[in-house]
Backbone:
């Protein structure tokens, strides 16, 4: 038996393993790490949001099915590799896509189907609250969803007893604790940087405004308690253990760390929680998180102000759309190869097509695409209409086609990042993570050109948020005082990484592309107006 395998077995037996589970937009992933932060087992469950009665949603049945399936796959891998039943771990952490709307009544009943971050139905509420607070309230935020429901006179609002996010909901059901990590909480309601909790002044403003609308609420009583990374967040109950593992192998009593949002786990997974650092997470959505030295000079509707899991201010440039359209085209190529009778796995198709993008013309053949599966706040697009456009004389080849889609995936985010450049925000390091970076160099090189910054990708880039959540669970179990020191001195002390500098010719090409992208947005607006389901 290899020494490393023996050490891993000992970690499992001595309960020095840590479990992170993240509910992403297209996949629920469970990751088990050992005492050296290596992934020793994982499991996943593919899912997709559904558009039901005007809202993007996931059913609660699928939430729990996905949790059980992903955990069962992980536990099975542990048994097959080590011959051990997974009964206990050192700590567990849950994370999920941020924002959205999950309101419950006093009995714990979900009052309306989960409204995800992807919904762009709260424009009126977001605009009014941004004006009232003098603080940007994006359409995705929980408070915008809640206020819009009040404005719309939805019947359920008078019954709301508790309001939380997806991560907060899962954690509550498993522990009985109505708590939330500060990073995720900062996507529900603005955070006071000094108190590290909800901004009391803005809560008072909100409640006074509701009184004028003949609606009364004590907002703090319906929001989850805010916790910082490392703080106690409850233990796994018997009911919770059964919800995760109906076989009964997983035992109750395991400590849980504060549940976090996918933005926070991305910061942890890339060691980007110090000032002047940042990370770019790419998946169904794309967002850049830049840790600020000081507040921005003014309010920008394109920039969210959230926090790190330690509570430090972060400028978040969030684009609702990134890889969905690319994945749809890859699926088309899969169907084509299957129709030819060829057995080509998806990963090989991704690798082949992504690398083809490096052969593109400097002007991308004049091609243009908008991978908008949903509305896009940064560019002012209200609904999703994926669009691909070319002129009759465009150089329409595979390389230009792929490079255009990859460039477009970062388009909205680039527009938001240009605002931070105007604010003279110093960014010393940007780290990329997410599945798009599994193909070496390609996405990394295009992102470097788009943001005109060196982009670092760590060996853990493909692990993503579930691994970052497992690290947060390990941090809690360590009883260390400072998360940034823990990451720098323990987790990432010898982490291998690759940094790519932006190429001057690529920067010029991307500048030309983004000018074409912005000019062509009217095409997208017309598509929204004219193409109705």
Residues:
């Amino acid at each position: 038996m290899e020494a490393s395998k023996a050490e891993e077995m000992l970690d499992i037996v001595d309960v020095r393993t840590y479990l992170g589970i993240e509910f992403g937009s297209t996949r629920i992933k469970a990751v088990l790490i050992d005492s050296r932060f290596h992934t020793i087992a994982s499991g996943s469950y593919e899912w997709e949001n559904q558009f039901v009665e005007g809202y993007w949603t996931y059913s609660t049945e699928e939430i729990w099915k996905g949790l059980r399936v992903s955990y069962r796959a992980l536990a099975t891998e542990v048994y097959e590799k080590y011959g051990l039943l997974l009964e206990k771990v050192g700590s567990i952490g849950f994370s999920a896509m941020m924002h959205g709307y999950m309101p419950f009544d006093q009995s714990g009943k979900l009052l309306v189907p989960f409204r995800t971050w992807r919904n762009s139905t709260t424009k009126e509420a977001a605009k009014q609250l941004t004006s009232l607070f003098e603080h940007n309230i994006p359409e995705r935020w929980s408070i915008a969803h809640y206020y819009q429901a009040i404005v719309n006179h939805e019947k359920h609002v008078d019954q709301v007893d508790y309001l939380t996010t997806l991560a907060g909901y899962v954690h509550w059901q498993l522990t009985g604790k109505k708590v939330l990590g500060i990073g995720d909480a900062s996507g529900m309601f603005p955070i006071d940087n000094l108190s590290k909790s909800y901004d009391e002044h803005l809560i008072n403003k909100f409640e006074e405004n509701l009184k004028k609308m003949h609606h009364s609420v004590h907002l703090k009583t319906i929001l989850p308690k805010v916790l910082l990374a490392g703080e106690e967040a409850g233990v796994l109950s018997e009911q919770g253990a059964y919800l995760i593992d109906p076989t009964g192998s997983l035992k109750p009593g395991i400590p849980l760390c504060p549940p976090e949002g996918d933005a926070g786990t991305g910061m942890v997974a890339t060691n980007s929680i110090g000032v002047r650092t940042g990370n770019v997470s790419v998946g169904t959505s794309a967002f850049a998180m830049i840790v600020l030295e000081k507040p921005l000079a003014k309010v920008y509707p394109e920039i969210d102000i959230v926090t790190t899991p330690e509570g430090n201010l972060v400028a978040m440039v969030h684009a609702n759309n990134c890889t969905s359209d690319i994945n749809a085209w890859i699926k088309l190529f899969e169907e084509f190869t299957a129709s030819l009778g060829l057995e080509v796995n998806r990963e090989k198709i991704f690798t082949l097509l992504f690398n083809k993008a490096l052969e593109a013309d400097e002007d991308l053949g004049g091609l243009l695409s908008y991978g908008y599966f949903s509305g896009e706040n940064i560019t002012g697009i209200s609904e999703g209409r994926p669009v691909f456009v070319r002129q009759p004389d465009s150089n329409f080849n595979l390389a230009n086609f792929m490079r255009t889609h990859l460039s477009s995936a970062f388009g909205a985010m680039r527009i938001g990042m240009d605002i931070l450049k105007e604010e003279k925000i110093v960014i010393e390091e940007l780290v990329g993570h997410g599945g798009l970076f599994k193909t070496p160099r390609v996405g990394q090189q295009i992102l470097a050109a788009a943001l005109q910054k060196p982009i670092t990708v760590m060996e853990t880039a493909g692990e993503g948020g579930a691994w970052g959540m497992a690290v947060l669970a390990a941090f809690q179990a360590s009883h260390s005082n400072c998360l940034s020191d823990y990451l720098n001195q323990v987790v990432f002390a010898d982490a291998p990484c690759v940094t790519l500098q932006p190429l001057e010719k690529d920067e010029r090409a991307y500048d030309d592309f983004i000018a074409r992208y912005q000019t062509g947005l009217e095409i997208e607006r017309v598509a929204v107006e004219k193409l109705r389901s």
Observations:
- The chain has a mean pLDDT of 94.
- The radius of gyration is 23 Å.
